[in-house]
Amino acid sequence: MRSILLYVCASLCLTGAIACRDRSGAAVDAPALAIASPAPSIPAGRVVGYSLVIPESFVNWKGNSVVGGNGHQGYIKPRTGTLAFDGAGAIAGGYFELDMNTITLTDKKDTSSNNGLVSHLKDPDFFDVRKYPKGTFQLTKAIKVSGDSSYYITGLLTLRAITQEIHFPATIVKKGEDLVATASLIIDRTKWGITYQSGSIMGLVKDELLEDLVPISLVLRFHSNSKAC
Questions:
Q1: Cα distance from N-terminal residue to C-terminal residue, the chain
Q2: What is the spatial distance between Cα 222 and Cα 57, in angstroms, rounded to a whole number?
Q3: What is the dihedral of CA 32, 37, 41, 47, to 10 degrees?
């Protein structure tokens, strides 16, 4: 609850900042980490918010065939995002949305083939973008693992109106007034109802199958808001 309240406060800060200035795997198993008892509530006024810098933020993906090297890779652009820190410097909340219409290939130069494959990724076999135009990630827990920049993140990823909890390591580095977050993880696409040519479906020969496990890498830049809540 404390995390949710802090995140809401941070979101209000972001709204105020925008009004003031126009600036613009399966989930990996969680390691056994000792978690301290929750600290006393931090006054809302000490929450500091960061907003996502859209042009410099990417969610990269890679899809592979079960047999052979016929995979593809590309990215999806976020459409909005926030990150909040409490008065003690701990991550208090985070949220971002993916614009599923921005699915893009980076490994093909043939425009006609590119467009055909991108269209297929947007249709009901995969992300059904017309029906589900956005994906979301809600951060629910962030544990500092070591040093000043390593974290273990837990959150809720929603695609095609299906929500699953995921866990992954991340690095968050402060660069001036900005934060740069990077992470790598693997998700099982079938958990979000994406079963096209999956090995879990009977009747397909091996060289027709696509891998269920999809590697994802994140590069997200956040810019500090001018005022704390």
A1: 18
A2: 9
A3: -30
Integer CA distances (angstroms), 167 to 20, 84, 86, 164, in order? 36, 19, 22, 10
Give the residue, 146 or 21, on which the prediction is more confident: 146
Q: Which of 2-11, 141-150, 172-181 has the lowest mean pLDDT?
A: 2-11
Indicate the pairing of strand 162-175 with strand 48-52.
unpaired
* Distance between CA atoms of residues 215 and 219, nearest Å: 14
Q: What is the distance between the alpha carbons of residues 157 and 83, in angstroms, rounded to a whole number? A: 16
Pairing of strands 58-63, 213-224: antiparallel
Residue holding tokens 């269209």? 119
Distance CA(78)–CA(222), nearest Å, equals: 12
Which residues are CB-contacts of 50 (< 8 A; sequence separation ≥ 6)? 82, 83, 84, 85, 178, 179, 222, 223, 224, 225
Q: Per-residue pLDDT averaged across 49-78, rounded? A: 88
The DSSP secondary structure of 64-128, one letter per residue, reads -BSSSS--EEEEE-EEEEEEEE-TTS-EEEEEEEEEGGG-EESS---HHHHHHHHHHHHSTTTT-
Do 123 and 33 form a contact (C-beta atoms < 8 A)?
A: no
Q: What does the alpha-carbon distance between residue 2 and residue 145 come to, in Å, rounded to a whole number?
A: 21
